Amino acid sequence: MDCLRKKFPPAQQGSGPLVGVQIDLLVPQHNFHCVDEPEKVTCADGQPPAAEKTTRRLHEKYGPVLRTSPNEVTCASPEAIKLIYRTQHPLNKTEFYTPWNTQNFSKHRDAFTEINDKRHGERRRIVNHVYSLANILKSEKYIDLCSQIFLSRLEAFAASQQAVDLGEWFQMYAFDVIGELYFGRMFGFMEKSHDHGNWIQSLDLLMPFLCMTSVAPSYMRPLILSSALVVPGSIKALKAVDTIGTAAREVVSKRFNIGVTPEHERRADVLQQLYDIHEEKGAKVDFKMGDIEQEAYVALLAGSDTTAIAFRSVFYNLMKNPDVYAALLEEIDMAVDDGRLHFPVSYAEAARLPLLCACIKEALRVHPGVQLILPRISPPEGLELCGTFVPPGYTVGVNGAVVHFDKSVFGPDADQYRPSRWLEDKEKATNMDRYMLHFGAGTRTCIGKNISLAEIHKLVPEVLRKFKFEMWNQDAQWKTHNFWFCKQTGLKVKVTKRDVC
């Protein structure tokens, strides 16, 4: 693939330069290869740099448009978001997403893996109201149940003064919230202090294979998937993921095959509202029990990772920036003293704390959950990106971990964590928000984002009010692992109970 510095064939050229970089099948392992000018860069620890950081550096070196394979283009321009993820005549997703559909619940694909935007829109409209913020907040009491267990575990950690893997506990919390909202009960991650069904470990094992399969040409996919069978633990992981699918089927069957539930016993959770759709208009819109099972399964497969990644970024960046941490504590304490914040914390009260909201947004900016491009197919008429014409059928996309650091949008210090940027000017903050990709963009914005935002806004101030967090090793840095979801490890902390009422 000798595409470095080459333009498209003459009929496909645009006015701007097109620099190409070959990214081989080891994208998830962060190895980028430039054929004419190999990029042999290593980090201080001798390892290759993370994919997202390498992509940023290559864009800085070669410009906003890079050809990363013979038929794939990535763009670093913030303005490309409006073109690639547009809401009018939206672009279809690519085949990247199809391997993520690992179960056959319904003849309809789920919202994440449906590549045809028209079909996606038809199916999403059926359930959209269930995922509105106002509707999700009807289930706040179920999130509060999970928060109380999380707080009780922190009490024990504070008493023992042992090192705590806070990142792992955030993932267990997120799993248990999904259990409450979709399965009618927590799974017991936090109560039993362990990885229920080895689900976390199993997803960690499978994500690299799913990611490599997704970026690979279609003819290579069977080989990659079959190679997973010889990797230690992968068969066990596949079985564990199957148990997630089984759990989704069983909970729907158990909840709704026992007859009509009296109104006073009905849970105001996501599962019940999905079932109400099935009962009220299921035949009309073809929304069957399998579609309910599919919604629960996808929430488990993707929802816990993205929320846990956000939690880790919030707390890691606070601990690494003690001045911001202190200012946020002051805001929370004052809100409690003034009667503006009560416990359990409601989303409505938390959303009125400006610095809290700024810290959450900044954490999502500097470390979005997904840190590869969100790929789409260039339309039949082609697409012009920064003066470069991209032919029809090419894969195009923007990486949030690149565009979130654009200095023209986020300021000259865009590479720094500084929550106050969101508080300086309302118009500027609104403009920055337009270029945030942490929950996707356009017609494919993450359907579960309001669940994640509710969890984060509610838990963060309550936890910070009651406990102090410090890195166990003050000089330690987390490690990131980019398999589309960019997960962090190494968030070992010391927990101390604060002397507050």
UniProtKB/TrEMBL annotation:
Cofactor: heme
Molecular-function annotations in GO: heme binding; iron ion binding; methyltransferase activity; monooxygenase activity; oxidoreductase activity, acting on paired donors, with incorporation or reduction of molecular oxygen
Keywords: Heme, Iron, Metal-binding, Methyltransferase, Monooxygenase, Oxidoreductase, Transferase
Residues noted as binding heme in the record, renumbered to the chain: 446
GO BP terms, alphabetized: methylation
Highest rank taxon of the organism: Eukaryota
PROSITE patterns in UniProt: CYTOCHROME_P450 (PS00086)
Oxidoreductase in keyword set: yes
SUPFAM superfamilies: Cytochrome P450
Keyword presence, Protein biosynthesis: no
Family: Belongs to the cytochrome P450 family.
Entry protein name: Putative pisatin demethylase protein
Organism per entry: Rosellinia necatrix (White root-rot fungus)
Taxonomic lineage of the native organism: Eukaryota, Fungi, Dikarya, Ascomycota, Pezizomycotina
